[in-house]
Amino acid sequence: MTDILPLSPNQKAFKEYPKKPAKIKGSSIAILIFLTMCALFIAVPLYVMIVTSIKHMDQIRLGEIFSLPTQVTFEPWWKAWNEVCSGVQCEGVKVGFFNSLAILFPSLILSIGLSMVTGYALALWNVKWAGTFLFILFTAAFVPFQIIMIPLIILSGIIKVYGTIWGVAIVHAVLAMPLLTLIFRNYYKDIPNEIMSAALMDSGSFWRIFFEIVLPMSGNILIVVLILQITSIWNDFIIGLYFGGIGTKPMTVILANSVITSRGEISYNVDMAAALLTAIPPLVIYFVLGKFFVQGITAGAIKG
Amino acid sequence: MAIRWSHWSPRIALVPALVITAVAFVGSIGWTIYISLTRSRRFPDYTINWDEWARQYERLFKDDAWAVSLKNLLVLGIGSTLAIIFGFILAAMIEREKRGEGFFRTIFLYPLAVSLIVAGLVWRWMFNPALGIENFLHQIGFANASFNWLASPDTAMYGIILASIWHGSGFYMALMLAGLKSINTEIWSAARLDGVSFWRLYIEIIIPMMRFTFLTCAILLSLGVVKAYDIIVAMTNGGPGSSTWMPAFFALNAYAGRSNIAYASAAAVIMLLITAAIFIPLVLITAWRVRRQEAIAQ
Amino acid sequence: MPRVEFQNIAKQYGRVTVLDELNLSVEDGEFLVLLGPSGCGKTTLLNLLAGLIEVTAGKISIDGNEVTNLDPKDRGLAMVFQSYALYPTKTVRGNLKFGLSAQKLDRAEIDRRVDWAAKLLQIEPLLDRKPSQLSGGQRQRVAIGRALVKNVGVFLFDEPLSNLDAKLRTEMRLEIKRLHDELRHTIVYVTHDQVEAMTMATKIAVMDGGVIQQVGTPDEIYETPANLFVAQFIGSPSMNMLRAKVARDGERLLANLEDASASIDISGHPFAQPPKDGDQIVVGLRPEHGLVDASDLPASLELPVQYAEKTGSDATLFLKTGSKPFAVRIEPSQAANYQTGAAVRVGFATEKFNIFDAQSGRRI
Q: A217–C82: do the CB atoms touch at under 8 Å?
């Protein structure tokens, strides 16, 4: 249609005007200085961790906590990874790293799969007591872990998963279920009613609509939840401590054991290297997928 | 519009979640409350002597360590509100200046990606009296500076508060920033046209408008404080003495240290009650807000 | 093609009754438009037929089979939604195919149907695009295509044109009409737009307050509205309504108009049940049935001009009465000749009157 018509006579060629000089006000400078100082305060621990982990103990003993290493060494990293002791086991934090990975995947699949389907059923299908159930889930999301921990330990003993990787993974999934279900439910609630009506007329199958229509529409929330879950599972301490058995404890527990209960002369550089190694996976996710990370933590906080 | 259905799939799909909720949450809470009334020690003992059902609770409130835990709960709670204030100031500055927003946000939020264990260990290292910040302060000339907070029962909690603020203020900044950005842009323009000063704008207009964000932050903070455990283990492991015990630490210590599940359960029940005391206002406020928004919509 | 029948349908939400004792049938190949203002229950009725909501009482049958308790997918229906409801993550082809997922068909048959529908609707070049890459009109075609591939006898449309701009709406109106002429499906079409109803329907059911006010062909609805609501709802500008009192003058029946302080002879009106002396009535006159300055007609009124309104091809003269202005259609070229305040005599052919009982609102 439009190609028949000539360009409208009001359209004018772009005209360049001289740029105005940028103005920076005094208040802006004050704010920027303030923010920079705050940023320094926040950044200091990471900086200290990094420099300590690559210093020799000789330099550390001089007490120059903020100074750069005079001689860079990666030996503490190697020690932390391979030799650090947790209790009587001296195989480094790498044991914990692989345990954490082994816990991470099953619990991600369990928790996200379960919460997605539950959220979908509650949001898009007519379930009579959905409101009541959602309220119970909402409450459950706030319950302190200590109130359910002992019975969960006994239950996981009964179903013979206590002390295993699966035991830890299942407890993670159980604990995350209320919050994640609420997040998915709130997301799915915004799928237009007419799309669901159309799907109901076209297919009518609960699972088919889930896999073909709803799941492909979940991309964004899936990334957000994935980041939320990876971070919280990786950073968890309490579940790993009380549900992990010998040889199945996650990285945070190995780290805490090796640093807190270490005997003899303390190698602060090795401690910091071990701490950094533990912190790296979530930090990488944060620096790569920061936008989703922020969404994840806010979703995890407010929607709960 | 409700969608009608006549098949079993949705109901079957809900069974796992229902079972988990019934067993792992409702049932487990009930079990813990029940056990707290018994004299169970290492293993559950299901007989209750109704003449002294409150035995564990009586013991609990006579226990000095529990009193310290409750006091510390309050101290950490009050101390951590600085994280909200700090978070708000950061958000307000970032929102006003806008330059470098992405950079500052990235810096302020990274502690959240770090586990509390790691955070606690770093701070513990920095509080190290011989080699840490105190030593650094002495070296640059502040001979009397004391930064050895974790070694004294009087100051150890402040160390934990400082680390908590470091870890959490970015989170509150993110919430506050979201709150600030949701304020109608015309309000900023109107204030500029009216020539309202920066301080008056914030104190009289912006902060009152964000009262729900503040409230949400306060409630989330309280819930986090009740759960505080990892950071204590990493920084002080409860010490010196029992000066940095918190209810969560107390309950787990009663379970793992003293092997007394009835006592641990009683402590956990009190934690649940504290959580409920924070949670119920949240529910009421949410319900009230929803109703108010509906009223406005009509 | 199947016949659709509603028998004694009731729908309640809690204690609110939306529909009650509603009966309606749609014959084979009919294009039925459910027309009414928003909130009249027309969409509820459509959703009941689709099975998206459940009836409180009553029976729905399609092609002689009762479907009241069947799932939406098992009712042999296809539906086009107001927002098109295309699956955003599927291509156009994927959308059309998903429409067939409840029917067990082999691959070749699915492809054949998709190709057929794509050709019929001229959306072949769009088959591999996502809905977000389509314009409003294209989405509309895809939505219709998704309904067409199902090869069912009954089509439901829920205000399908209300999200399109005026020009596209006219185009799609013709398109839907063409498809109906070609394929002769039974169609139930919900709208609040009387132009859509008048142009497409073979039968219109006018609804208000959950009650069907009148069912009839577009001409019947327009020419002989069954009651005051239908008379006023259909037609633009709407029908002029004048309250009057009947007076018998020998053989003649006179209507003494309240607002125009005049009386007109209504003896020539083909009454179903002639009114008695002293009855309160409402006389309805369509704007185009009035002839300006035609004093030779048996019924006429003299009224002062309020203003004249021109809309391109049409012009309407509004005359002052005691209540709402009285509209008369005039030649656009004449519009400038009428000065505000000047008296104009308007004449009517008596048989064009629509006369209603003032109390019941029913046509008499």
A: no
- The answer to whether C244 and C257 have CB atoms below 8 angstroms apart is yes
Chain C residues near residue A212 by CB distance under 8 angstroms: 87, 90, 98, 101
For B21, nearest residue in chain A (alpha carbons): A137
Interface residues of A toward C, Cβ cutoff 8 Å, are: 192, 194-195, 197-205, 208, 212-213, 216-217
Using the beta-carbon criterion (under 8 Å), do B13 and A64 form an inter-chain contact? no
Tell me the CA distances in angstroms from C298 to C217, C268, C295, C304, one per residue in order. Answer: 30, 9, 8, 20
Chain C residues inside the 8 Å CB shell of A206: none
Over residues A207-217, mean pLDDT: 91
Q: Which helix (H) or strand (E) holds C262?
A: strand C262-265
In a mutational test of the A interface, the residue from C87, C110, C142, C167 whose CB has the highest number of chain A CBs within 10 Å is C87
Contact with chain B for residue C44, Cβ under 8 A: no
Asked if C110 contacts C146 with a C-beta cutoff of 8 angstroms, the reply is no
User: For chain B, which chains pass the contact test of at least 3 CB pairs under 8 Å?
Assistant: A, C
CA distance B244 to chain A (A): 16
Q: What is the pLDDT of residue B194?
A: 80
Contact B132 A65 (CB under 8 A): yes
3-state secondary structure of C146: helix
The minimum CA-CA distance between B223 and chain A, rounded to whole Å, is 8
Structure tokens at C133: 């890459």
* Location of each CATH 1.10.3720.10 domain in chain A: 94-303
Task: Tell me if chain C has a CB within 8 Å of the CB of B10.
Answer: no
Q: Does B1 touch chain C (CB under 8 A)?
A: yes
Fold category of A94-303 in CATH = MetI-like fold (1.10.3720)
Which residues of chain A have a CB within 8 Å of the CB of C43? none
Cβ within 8 Å, pair A201-C50: yes
CB count, 10 Å around CB of C295?
Answer: 10
CB C75 within 8 A of CB C50: yes
> Residue B22: what pLDDT?
92
Q: What pLDDT is recorded for position C294?
A: 65
Fold of C4-233: Rossmann fold (3.40.50)
Using CB atoms and an 8 Å cut-off, which of residues 141-180 of chain B contact chain C? Answer: none
Q: Break chain C into its structural domains and give their ranges.
A: 4-233, 240-357
Q: Flag residues of chain B having pLDDT under 50.
A: 1-5
CATH superfamily of B63-297: MetI-like (1.10.3720.10)
Residues C56-109 pLDDT 10s? 999 999 988 888 888 888 888 889 998 888 998 889 999 998 888 777 888 889
- The residue ranges of every structural domain in chain B are 63-297
**C240-357 belongs to CATH 1.20.1250.20:** no
Whether C4-233 shares its CATH topology with C240-357 is answered no
| C58 in contact with B, Cβ within 8 Å | no
Give me the sheet containing C326-330, strands edge to edge. Answer: C290-292, C343-348, C299-311, C314-319, C326-330
pLDDT truncated to tens, each residue of chain C (364 aa)? 688 999 999 998 888 888 888 999 999 889 999 999 988 889 999 999 998 888 999 999 998 888 888 888 888 888 999 888 899 888 999 999 888 877 788 888 999 999 999 998 889 999 999 998 998 889 999 999 999 898 888 999 999 888 888 888 888 899 899 989 988 889 999 999 989 999 999 999 999 988 999 999 999 999 889 999 999 898 888 888 888 888 887 778 888 887 767 778 777 777 877 888 888 888 888 888 888 776 666 677 788 888 888 887 888 888 888 778 888 888 888 777 888 888 888 887 777 788 888 888 888 8
Q: How many CA atoms lie within 13 A of B163 on its CB side?
A: 33
Beta strands in A156-253 (DSSP E): none
Instruction: Give B40's contacts (C-beta < 8 A, 6+ positions apart).
Output: B46, B260, B261, B262, B265
